[in-house]
Design a protein that fits this description.
transmembrane helix; ABC transporter involved in vitamin B12 uptake, BtuC; transmembrane; transport; 325 residues; mainly alpha
Length: 325
């Protein structure tokens, strides 16, 4: 009952943040005009509400869900509460592919950039698996290989930025993570894909619970550990890759949301995954809202806001993990 209450509270907070996000901004929309802006094409606020802010809010919800659930899966697989898509190099791989596209194909259509980012995430996954294969995909090995791989991708990004300074602003905007300019084209891609992947993740929640207790116990319960870990890792990478392809390299959502969900409802993924999804969406909505209203008419990329929120919390988690040892 208490766990269900947390989910309801999270959804109510999401609705409130959506309303505020549609209302607030450089051009404020009064509450009595939001409904007409959503439904009446003749309304003066229709374009801003329906064509600018509503798709932006929708992308934030689905991307936040994707990053949070991807992080929750990784934390269960690696048995490390400080894991996230950033830690194993997935975000860096997607960013490298996106930055390479920005610099090498500056005139490419809009769909090329997110496709390149998703491809970069999947290539990162393949490299991670190939480098860890001889060591049976052990959690510690995956984490260490991911950190090293992320450093290599980050070096590649720096190379492009130094070599092609003309497009550095676009690359920095992508690497900071931003919801600026997101429209219905992105919503129509990210919403169904994240929904399907989330349903698949919920169907594997019990396997995640078993894998958390260790390989020996998992094998004694009849679980094919290597195969299931590889499949669930692919699922996590796919969710993170789709989210990053839509909003850029936004950090800390995949770390904070699963950890907060675990603090609220425990480590059973039947509840942890949906709670993490809601928290991730709320964090991204809040970060985007703050980024749009702090320095009106300018806009702070949402990735910077989430980093300002997430970095102190990450330091707190590190300190707590050290005290518990």
């Amino acid at each position: 009952m208490r766990k269900g209450l947390f989910l309801v509270i999270g959804l109510v907070m999401m609705a409130a943040l959506c309303w505020l996000s549609i209302s607030a901004g450089a051009v404020p929309i009064p509450a009595n005009r939001i409904i007409s802006g959503l439904t009446d094409p003749q309304s003066p606020s229709y374009f801003i509400v329906h064509e600018v802010r509503l798709p932006r809010v929708s992308v934030a919800i689905w991307a936040g869900c994707g990053l949070a659930v991807a992080g929750a899966i990784l934390q269960s697989l690696l048995r490390n509460h400080l894991s996230s898509p950033d830690v194993i190099g997935i975000t860096q791989g997607a960013s490298f592919a996106a930055v390479a596209t920005i610099f090498l194909l500056p005139g490419a259509p809009w769909g090329v950039l997110p496709a390149a980012a998703f491809t970069g995430a999947m290539v990162s996954f393949l490299i991670l698996v190939l480098m860890s294969r001889k060591l049976t995909l052990a959690p510690a090995t995956l984490a260490l290989v991911g950190v090293a791989m992320g450093a290599v991708f980050q070096a590649g990004i720096q190379y492009f930025m130094v070599t092609y300074p003309a497009n550095v602003n676009m690359a920095l905007l992508w690497m900071s993570g931003s919801l600026w300019g997101r429209g219905w084209d992105q919503v129509h891609i990210i919403a169904p894909v994240i929904t399907i992947l989330f349903v698949v993740a919920m169907g594997n929640a019990r396997k995640l619970n078993i894998l958390q207790v260790g390989d020996a116990i998992s094998q004694s319960l009849g679980l094919l550990v290597r195969r299931e870990r590889l499949w669930l890792l692919l699922l996590s990478v796919a969710m993170a890759g789709v989210a990053v392809s839509a909003v850029g390299a936004i950090g800390f959502i995949g770390l904070l949301a699963p950890h907060m969900a675990r603090a609220l409802v425990g480590s059973q993924n039947q509840w942890r995954l949906p709670i993490a999804a809601v928290i991730g969406a709320n964090l991204l909505l809040l970060g985007d809202l703050l980024g749009r209203v702090l320095v009106i008419p300018r806009e702070v990329p949402v990735g910077i806001i989430t980093a300002v929120i997430g970095a102190p919390y990450f330091i707190y988690l590190l300190g707590r993990e050290r005290r518990m040892k």
